[in-house]
């Protein structure tokens, strides 16, 4: 509910995240996510099964290409388990990226007609994507049981990496939703980014494979990808192996920097959103 | 500080027209680059002030009507006060819980059921889940769609959708209510109920209402005070009567070209021009007004231009209203079922003849409407004004006038029986 005293002054502009207001709108955040979920598989025959088929199909093709044909060295871990552990975090990131870019343009009828903190829109998309994340995670657990892979002792770090995954997805989502309003060019960039990221992130292969074939500057560049470190850490916490290297921390820092700068940029664009959307 | 609930000071909103504000990356880069090179931006930019130096105060419990022609800045003002867009200059302060209703059914999703949409729309309008739950039965009763509560809204008729949407809106309980012209939708009977509900709200519950409308009748009934905006500035503020009078006087000029008048509808067929013939001569327009004499004959010729090739039926209606927007008469070929027919892209000329114009002398406003009987092609409100001039029709030197004797003259006879 809007606060009881509203003051707007065009001559003053200061940055404030206004978390309290955002909390006031949590019902809206939840119901928008509910709407997206309900509508997503409306009038489909398979319904929620689709959320399962999509990662399963990608996993199958990865297993055939990278597991069988190319024979990627996974350090003794059965390939499907290796790949799905990377995909779990990536699927979520890719979903949020895909959905957020267009989210505010898609909600323009609302944006032009009513006030609410616009951040609610990309945030609700991130909640919707969590369903996909849970399904992919179930697939991971299922495969670990089938292949009799027990979780590593690092599993206590898993929540940290789940949170990092979410922050990373939010960071990219918030940036893209604000950018797309100003520059529709980003509508064309997003699908490309997702496809590019799928290969520029150690999902289907371990990062060592690529690092050993790149010059030093190439490796640094590789870890500028915010998901590179997150996916690696996510996999490490579940399956063990070598801990994320120094450069992975660069990746984590990028995530945090992107998140904070994204929020600032979003807030700046927020006040002109209804005018330019 | 005064006890004003809404204080607005020097509010202004500037838009840049002439080119897309920040449409693409290239434009933004090139202009930055030019600035870097010290060259001025060659793209032409024109400033347009949609709102300029607007200041007013509204006190607790007041119902204020904001009127003005299309493009006068009414919607911009409401959008700023609703915090949808940010002002370029000035400030405002609002004390109290605000709900703004610039549209009914914001966020409605056609795949969701009526029940789900009530929750969705209610939340978007700022109600809490628990609050909606509490009022749920009331909302359904008001809407009259309880039978279809669990049907996806896409199967609703447009009327049902509007009723459901309005019922949600009518159950908002803010201290301050900001309403744009939302009553333009929905059937007449439902509109009346909504107006009644709003009236009740502002008068009985001491709620502050800010109301934009073209419906002068509604503004007159609901509002205690009026603000007339023109070209983004306040032209006059004061009593509702005075403000409406000034507005209607202003609309006398320039409304004779039907094709360029503001209108609503699907526009598959549009009004092109209108002519008036009386006593075998064309009546001249002056400032969008014609003058004719009391009890003279009249023929109205309306030319319509199809924008779609079909052979649909065409119904036309002329509604005559008084200066306050109360409807007095409608002349139409719908209720007598005598349709005209579209013949692909040929113009249609419709003629409406009256032997005697029996409205009393006074000034009247005319609305025009055309349709195929199901959807409105075009509706032009306040298309033009007609002044009926007094004339010594009875040879007595006495002349009726609408302000004293009512709007109509009924042909009749008097005689003394005893």
Outline the fold blueprint.
The complex is a heterodimer of chains A (about 280) and B (about 425).
Chain A: E1 5-9, H1 19-24, H2 26-40, H3 49-69, H4 79-101, H5 103-106, H6 108-111, H7 120-146, H8 158-182, H9 185-199, H10 207-211, H11 216-222, H12 226-239, H13 246-270, H14 273-276
Helix pairs in contact in A: 2-7, 3-4, 3-7, 4-7, 4-8, 4-9, 4-12, 8-12, 8-13, 12-13
Chain B: E1 4-17, H1 25-36, E2 46-59, E3 63-67, H2 74-81, E4 89-95, E5 98-101, H3 114-124, H4 129-143, H5 158-170, E6 176-179, H6 188-204, E7 208-212, H7 216-222, E8 225-230, E9 233-239, H8 240-250, E10 269-278, E11 281-282, E12 289-293, E13 298-306, E14 313-321, E15 327-332, E16 340-341, E17 348-354, E18 362-371, E19 376-389, H9 402-405
Helix pairs in contact in B: 3-4, 3-5, 4-5
Can you characterise this structure?
Helix content of chain A is 70%, strand content 2%. The longest helix of chain A is centred in the middle third of the chain and has 27 residues. Chain A has one domain. Chain A has 277 residues and is mainly alpha-helical. The model of chain A has no long low-confidence stretch (mean pLDDT 89). The longest helix of chain B is centred in the middle third of the chain and has 17 residues. Chain B contains 9 helices and 19 strands. With 418 residues, chain B is of the alpha/beta class. The model of chain B has no long low-confidence stretch (mean pLDDT 82). In chain B, a hairpin with a 4-residue loop joins strand 18 and strand 19. In chain B, strands 5-6-7-3-8-9 form a 6-stranded mixed beta sheet, with helices on both faces. Chain B folds into 2 domains: 247 residues, 3-Layer(aba) Sandwich (Rossmann fold), CATH 3.40.50.300; 135 residues, abc- transporter (atp binding component) like domain (Coagulation Factor XIII, Chain A, domain 1), CATH 2.70.50.60. At the A-B interface, strand 1, helix 2, helix 6 and helix 14 of A face strand 4, strand 5 and helix 3 of B. Strand 1 of chain A pairs antiparallel with strand 4 of chain B.
């Amino acid at each position: 509910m809007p606060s009881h005293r509203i003051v707007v002054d065009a001559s003053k502009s200061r940055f404030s995240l206004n978390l309290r207001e955002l909390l006031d709108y949590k019902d809206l955040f939840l119901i928008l996510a509910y709407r997206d979920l309900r509508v997503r598989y409306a009038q489909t025959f398979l319904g929620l099964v689709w959320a399962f088929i999509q990662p399963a199909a990608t996993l199958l093709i990865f297993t055939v290409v990278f597991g069988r044909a190319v024979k990627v060295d996974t350090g003794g871990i059965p390939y499907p388990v290796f790949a799905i552990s990377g995909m779990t975090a990536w699927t979520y990131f890719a979903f949020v990226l895909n959905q957020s870019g267009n989210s505010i343009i898609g909600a323009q009828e609302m944006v032009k007609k009513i006030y609410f903190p616009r951040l609610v829109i990309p945030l609700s998309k991130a909640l919707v994507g969590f369903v996909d994340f849970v399904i992919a995670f179930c697939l991971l657990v299922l495969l670990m049981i089938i292949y009799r892979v027990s979780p590593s002792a690092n599993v206590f770090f898993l929540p940290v990496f789940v949170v990092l995954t979410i922050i990373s997805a939010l960071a990219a989502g918030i940036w893209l939703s604000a950018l797309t309003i100003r520059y529709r060019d980003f509508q064309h960039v997003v699908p490309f980014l997702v496809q590019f990221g799928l290969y520029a992130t150690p999902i289907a292969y371990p990062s060592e494979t690529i690092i050993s074939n790149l010059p030093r500057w190439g490796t640094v560049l590789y870890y500028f990808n915010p998901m590179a470190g997150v996916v690696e850490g996510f996999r490490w916490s579940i399956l063990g192996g070598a801990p994320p290297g120094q450069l992975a921390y660069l990746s984590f820092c990028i995530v945090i920097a992107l998140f904070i700068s994204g929020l600032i940029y979003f807030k700046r664009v927020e006040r002109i959103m209804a005018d330019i959307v | 500080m005064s006890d004003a609930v809404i204080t607005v000071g020097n509010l202004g909103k500037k838009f840049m027209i002439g080119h897309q504000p920040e449409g693409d990356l290239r434009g933004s880069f090139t202009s930055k680059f030019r600035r870097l090179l010290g060259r001025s931006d060659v793209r032409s930019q024109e400033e347009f002030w949609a709102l300029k130096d607007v200041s007013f105060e509204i006190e607790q419990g007041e119902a204020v009507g904001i009127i003005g022609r299309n493009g006068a800045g009414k919607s911009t003002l409401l959008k700023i006060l609703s915090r949808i867009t940010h002002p370029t200059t000035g400030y405002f302060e609002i004390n109290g819980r605000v709900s703004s209703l610039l549209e009914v059914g914001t966020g409605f999703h056609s795949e969701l059921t009526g029940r789900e949409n009530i929750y969705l729309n209610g939340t978007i309008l700022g109600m809490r889940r628990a609050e909606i739950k509490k009022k749920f039965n009331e909302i359904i009763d008001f809407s009259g769609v309880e039978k279809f509560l669990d049907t996806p809204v896409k199967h609703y008729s447009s009327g049902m959708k509007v009723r459901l949407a309005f019922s949600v809106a009518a159950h908002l309980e803010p201290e301050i209510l900001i309403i744009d012209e939302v009553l333009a939708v929905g059937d007449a009977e439902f509109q009346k109920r909504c107006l009644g509900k709003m009236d009740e709200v502002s008068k009985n519950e001491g709620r502050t209402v800010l109301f934009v409308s073209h419906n002068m009748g509604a503004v007159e009934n609901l509002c205690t005070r009026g603000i007339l905006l023109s070209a983004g500035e306040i032209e006059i503020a004061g009593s509702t009567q005075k403000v409406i009078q000034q507005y209607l006087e202003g609309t006398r000029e320039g409304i004779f070209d039907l094709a360029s008048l503001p209108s609503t509808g699907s526009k598959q067929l549009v009004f092109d021009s209108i002519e008036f013939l009386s006593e075998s001569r064309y009546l001249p327009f002056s400032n969008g007004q014609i003058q004719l004499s009391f009890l003279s004959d009249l023929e109205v010729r309306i030319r319509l231009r199809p924008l779609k090739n079909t052979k649909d039926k065409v119904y036309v209606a002329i509604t005559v209203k008084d200066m306050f927007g109360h409807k007095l008469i409608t002349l139409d070929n719908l209720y007598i079922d005598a349709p005209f027919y579209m013949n692909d892209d040929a113009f249609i000329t419709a003629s409406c003849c009256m032997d005697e114009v029996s409205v009393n002398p006074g000034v009247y406003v005319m609305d025009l409407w055309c349709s195929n009987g199901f959807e409105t092609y075009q509706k032009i409100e306040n298309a033009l004004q007609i002044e009926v001039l007094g004339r010594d029709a009875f040879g007595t030197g006495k002349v009726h006038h609408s302000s004293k004797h009512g709007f109509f003259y009924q042909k009749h006879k008097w005689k003394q029986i005893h």
